[in-house]
TrEMBL record:
GO terms for molecular function: purine nucleobase transmembrane transporter activity; purine nucleoside transmembrane transporter activity. Coiled coil: none annotated. Keywords: Membrane, Transmembrane, Transmembrane helix, Transport. GO terms for cellular component: membrane. The keyword Transmembrane applies. This is Uncharacterized protein. It is found in: Membrane. Pfam families: PUNUT. Residues 1-14 have a biased composition (Polar residues). It comes from the Eukaryota. Residues 1-20 are annotated as: Disordered. The chain crosses the membrane at residues 30-52, 64-85, 106-134, 154-179, 191-213, 233-252. It comes from Lactuca virosa.
């Protein structure tokens, strides 16, 4: 009888040790994924910023086009989203909750956040156009002109960049509030839907601005006049769109 009790105790201890070991493995995997997706965020944002600056440096002039590539590549996320997403049979994928918002509420929510995103991207574009790679010249320069851009434009670019950063933070706060108060869920599907529809609305709004401003008429001429050639022009826009989606994908998967 005593031997049976000792065997049972040993079995429980082994199972407990196995559970702790399994938990550590899960934690290690989680931290590896966090590091992986954090790398996506930083590499995507830095690459997109450099390519966006290169677009203006080499002769690109369309602010609407430079803004469009920040959101229009959202469809590129689909293959990677489904590769890393939880199985649709797992509860964290759907996580249905009571009081699901109506279609009208969702349309208003996605439209509002999409317009907000479009405006924030436009502010970022203005900052990218007017600011140099480093803002050191803005702080240390005493001259009225620096290169081909006036000091006043540097100041406008600085203000737009700060406003874009503040707007991005505000939008994240509003989005989190929407998850808690309106959507009442942070499941993978809900977050993914929010990201896709928000980028879709933003892209539609930016496209409307592109056509309304008449800048679309100058795209062919801009492509021909691009210093690095037409192929580089296309590669720059595509690369910028991909880089921004790498950033968005990493940010989404870190949630």
């Amino acid at each position: 009888m005593k031997e049976a009790q000792e065997q049972a105790t040993n079995t429980v201890e082994i199972q407990s040790d196995g559970g702790r070991g399994s938990s550590k493995v899960v934690q290690y995997k989680w931290w590896i994924l966090i590091a992986f997706f954090t790398m996506f965020v930083f590499s995507g944002q830095s690459t997109a910023t450099m390519l966006g600056r290169l677009y203006f440096t080499k002769g690109g002039n369309s602010k609407w086009m430079a803004t469009l590539v920040q959101t229009a590549g959202f469809l590129l996320m689909y293959p990677f989203i489904f590769l890393f997403s939880p199985s649709k049979t797992q509860p964290e994928y759907h996580q249905q909750v009571a009081g699901k918002p109506s279609l009208t509420t969702l349309v208003i929510l996605y439209t509002t956040l999409g317009i907000f995103l479009a405006a924030d991207c436009m502010l970022f574009t203005f900052g990218l156009n007017f600011l140099p790679v480093s803002t050191f010249s803005l702080i240390s320069s005493d001259s009225e002109e620096t290169g081909n851009v006036s000091r006043s434009k540097y100041i406008i670019g600085f203000v737009c960049t700060v406003a874009a950063s503040a707007g991005w933070g505000l939008m994240l706060s509003i989005t989190q509030l929407a998850f808690q108060k309106i959507l009442k869920s942070t499941s993978y599907k809900v977050v993914f839907d929010m990201t896709v529809y928000q980028n879709l609305i933003a892209s539609i709004g930016i496209l409307m601005g592109l056509f309304a401003s008449g800048e679309w008429k100058d795209i062919k001429g801009e492509m021909r006049g691009f210093e690095s050639g037409q192929a580089s022009y296309i590669m720059n826009l595509v690369g910028t769109a991909v880089a921004w989606q790498v950033f968005t994908y990493g940010f989404l998967m870190k949630r």
